[in-house]
Design a protein that fits this description.
With about 110 residues, this protein is mainly α. Helix content is about 80%, strand content about 0%. Helix 1 packs antiparallel against helix 4, helix 2 runs antiparallel to helix 3 and helix 3 runs antiparallel to helix 4.
Length: about 110
């Protein structure tokens, strides 16, 4: 049971970080948001939250290619979904990667 409480606090921390990014995203430059996305990716990786790691990589790519402002809201929503996702298997990662690939293509 203690492990579940740990994951709940990790998820809560990541959700708070994502919400803070969502508030800043419409007005911040990509170079200001990228370190925060990287921090989320590192925390997710350390805690075995593989779908969140996958989405954070795609979000990093989106920032690098110049996506900014309100467009980031959708990315952060996908990242929030990945953080709260219970499944951490390859199929879950593939599903989130496919969703991200569609976003990148449009």
């Amino acid at each position: 049971m203690a492990e579940q409480v740990d994951m709940d606090s990790v998820r809560a921390d990541l959700a708070a970080r994502i919400s803070a990014l969502d508030v800043r995203a419409p007005h911040a430059r990509a170079c200001e948001l990228a370190p925060e996305v990287d921090a989320i990716r590192v925390i997710a990786h350390r805690n075995g939250m593989n779908p969140a790691v996958t989405v954070a990589h795609f979000l990093d790519f989106a920032l690098a290619r110049g996506e900014h402002g309100p467009l980031l809201h959708g990315w952060l929503s996908v990242l929030r979904d990945a953080v709260t996702n219970e499944r951490q298997d390859v199929a879950a990662c593939d599903a989130f990667a496919a969703a991200c690939a569609v976003r990148i293509a449009h």
